[in-house]
Specification:
Keywords: Disulfide bond, Hydrolase, Protease, Serine protease, Signal. The structure is a single chain. By secondary structure, the protein is of the alpha+beta class. It has a single domain (28-51, 62-300), classed as Thrombin, subunit H (Beta Barrel). The protein has 6 helices and 15 strands. Strand 13 (256-261) and strand 14 form a beta hairpin. The longest helix is centred in the N-terminal third of the chain and has 21 residues, at 2-22. The relative contact order is 0.19. Mean pLDDT is 84; it is low at 1-22, 55-62 and 201-205.
């Protein structure tokens, strides 16, 4: 009888989570991609500034693919309070039932101060509607942890974790991501990388409502430094090849870069500098290297790394 009661309680918790998710509605007309806010650009060094004015073809999403339901169960959407009734859109990845991994610039303002809070959406393939697969929950200022050495202008230590106000319930559509084990010393250059997110599909327009993904090779840092200076791309970064105009054009800041490893998705990067403008420049997208920050992630979440 104890087991029956326990399983019934778990089922009730799952139902409550879904019911709670449906109670959070969002005016999507008040949501803008993070790179549509001035603060996204003001933080960047001079060598990135020219990308702001590059003309972007409307067909840039052509090389992306629509994600299937449950294809990226670790994908998270973050709507952070940007003030004046607006929300900034970023991506993230599910670490545990309590924590989301994202970029520091997604949850900070112009002065690198933490935003008041926001809303997380898990299990979504269309963020503009409430799907039965989704779980929606809030997060507050106190639950945001930003790397203490985060430098907005230098794009250094661009990493943060977000504690959800309500724990997620893992389902077929909401699952945690795997991170490189503590003993894993691979740099992943040459691996096929997958970037997923809700990037914009019309220049200067609203961000995409549907989840998309692209696949391209992960670059070595030596290759990446042929495009970006060693001051911009360092050991704490990893880059994705821009071949075919795919790269991170279709992903969001804060979102995951994964590779396939022993049949599982392994997150190797967090989108740090990704924008539609960068796609046409032919420059690689720049990501936070997850393995570089394993100790910090362990100290600022309840994620347990494999040995």
């Amino acid at each position: 009888m104890k087991f029956a009661v326990s399983f019934a309680a778990i089922g009730l918790l799952a139902l409550c989570a879904v019911a709670g998710a449906k109670s959070i509605d969002i005016d999507v007309t008040r949501v803008k991609s993070i790179d549509q806010f001035d603060r996204y650009w003001r933080r960047l060094p001079a060598e990135f500034q020219s990308l702001r004015t590059v003309e972007v073809p409307q067909g840039r999403i052509t090389n992306g693919q629509l994600a299937g339901t449950g294809q990226f169960p670790y994908q998270a959407v973050l709507y952070s309070d940007a003030g004046d009734g607006f929300y900034s859109l970023c991506g993230g990845s599910i670490l545990t039932v309590n924590y989301i991994l994202t970029a520091a610039h997604c949850v900070t303002d112009d002065f690198s101060q933490k935003v008041p809070g926001g809303i997380a959406i898990l299990g979504a393939t269309d963020r503009n509607v409430i799907q039965s697969t989704q779980q929606r929950m809030t997060y507050g200022n106190a639950g945001i942890r930003v790397h203490p050495q985060y430098s907005a202008s230098g794009i250094r230590n661009d990493i943060a974790t977000v504690r959800l106000d309500t724990p997620a319930v893992f389902t077929a559509y909401v699952k945690p991501i795997d991170l490189p084990a503590l003993s894993d010393t691979r740099q992943f250059g040459g691996f096929e990388g997958t970037a997923s997110g809700f990037g914009r599909t019309v220049d200067n327009g609203a961000p995409s409502g549907v989840l998309m993904f692209v696949r391209n090779p992960v670059m070595t840092n030596t290759q990446c430094n042929l495009y970006w200076s060693t001051s911009s791309v360092q050991a704490q970064n990893v880059c994705l090849d821009p071949t075919g105009g795919r790269s991170a054009c279709h992903g969001d800041s804060g979102g995951p870069l994964t590779v396939q490893d022993a049949g599982r998705s392994l997150q190797v990067g967090i989108a740090s500098f990704v924008s539609a403008q960068g796609c046409t420049s032919g420059a690689p997208s720049v990501w936070v290297r997850v393995s570089y920050f394993r100790d910090w992630i362990r100290q600022n979440s309840d994620y347990v790394f494999r040995a």
